[in-house]
UniProtKB/TrEMBL annotation:
It comes from the Bacteria. Residues 296-306 have a biased composition (Pro residues). Coiled coil: none annotated. Residues 285-295, 307-321 have a biased composition (Low complexity). This is DUF72 domain-containing protein. InterPro entries: DUF72, UPF0759_sf.
């Protein structure tokens, strides 16, 4: 049985900081991260999506967290083909992902920025979250191959935002594509009432890692403000729906990261705490049949002798913590 780590996708979100979840004396940058790391085992860094990560922050994060704590770092927006603000580009480089010279420099800067986490054994994964217009096809295959070549040896996770990747008739090919590059498929929980809704499939494409991201089930997804999109409080029944699926993933991978992205006030940390309680309460023996690996996935190692561990943590949305 693999290790299960539960966390959230922000530890410095302004609404969370202002919610009172952090106790007095633990509300500065160092205190917030230490408070999280004492309770949870994984955190997603999505500040690195908005601006290139710096070596100093990565070094501080590694120093302020215990052994076993890991960071899932979201790839910089330019590296996944998202629009990127010129203001965040270093040294006046143009924000143009189609420019090979710019792309080389950005990759170098991103690699250097997360190196302290890699060196300290704190890098859980690098998350490539692709935009809704990134669809199956030869161009996407080439893009993924180039990402794999530039990140050889990194733990990678890929989230697709266009539902066609996991539709019947395409899902097997998608799984085989990710497995061929050693990339972990990201499963998502979100509202299923929209044309853009990604189905909650849980393919296993890497023996090292599986990732599940909970975006909330707001129907304002893709249309409303950031607050409207992520304003959602999960109930225990909704979380319990995922227990068998998470357990099945843990049977086939070394680690499962369960991350809550409903970052509005303290909703994400409360959901992460609730999921941790449910996992601790749910006996591992009560599992469904083993999850099916995607076609082309490498052999999966046998069961690990240590019991699954559930822990929860969260990430940086805008600043060092």
């Amino acid at each position: 049985m693999g290790q299960i780590l539960v966390g959230t996708c922000s530890w410095t979100d302004r609404a969370l900081v202002g919610s009172g979840w952090y106790p007095p004396g633990r509300r500065d940058a160092e205190g917030r991260l230490r408070h999280y790391a004492e309770r949870f085992g994984v955190v997603e860094v999505d500040a690195s999506y908005y601006a290139l990560p710096g070596e100093r922050n990565s070094r501080l994060w590694a120093e302020r967290t215990p052994d076993g704590f890991v960071f899932d770092v979201k790839a910089f927006s330019l590296l996944t083909g998202h629009p990127t603000r010129q203001a965040v580009m270093p040294e006046g480089w143009p924000a143009e992902h189609r420019d090979p010279a710019v792309l080389d420099r950005v990759w170098d800067r991103f690699t250097a920025g997360i190196e302290p986490l890699r060196a300290a054994g704190r890098l859980g994964s690098v998350l490539f979250q692709f935009p809704p217009w990134f669809r199956p096809g030869q161009r996407a295959k080439t893009f993924l191959r180039e990402c794999a070549e530039r990140t050889a040896g990194w733990p990678l996770a890929v989230e697709f935002r266009h539902p066609s990747w996991w539709e019947p008739g395409q899902a097997d090919a998608t799984g085989a594509l990710l497995a061929g590059h050693g990339m972990a498929a990201v499963a998502v929980d979100m509202t299923q009432t929209l044309a853009s809704s990604v189905p909650p499939v849980t393919p296993v494409t890497s023996p090292r890692l599986s990732v599940v991201r909970f975006h909330g089930r707001s129907t304002a997804w893709g249309t409303g403000s950031k607050e409207d999109r992520f304003r959602y409080a999960y109930g225990e029944e909704e979380l319990a729906e995922w227990l068998p699926r998470v357990r099945r993933l843990a049977e086939r991978t070394e680690q499962v990261h369960v991350l809550f992205n409903n970052c509005c006030g303290e909703a994400a940390v409360r959901a992460a705490e609730a999921m941790t309680r449910l996992l601790d309460r749910d006996p591992p023996a009560a599992r469904l049949p083993r999850a099916r690996s995607a076609p082309g996935a490498p052999p999966t190692p046998g069961p690990r002798p240590t019991p699954a561990r559930s822990s929860s943590s969260s990430s940086s949305r805008r600043a060092a913590g």
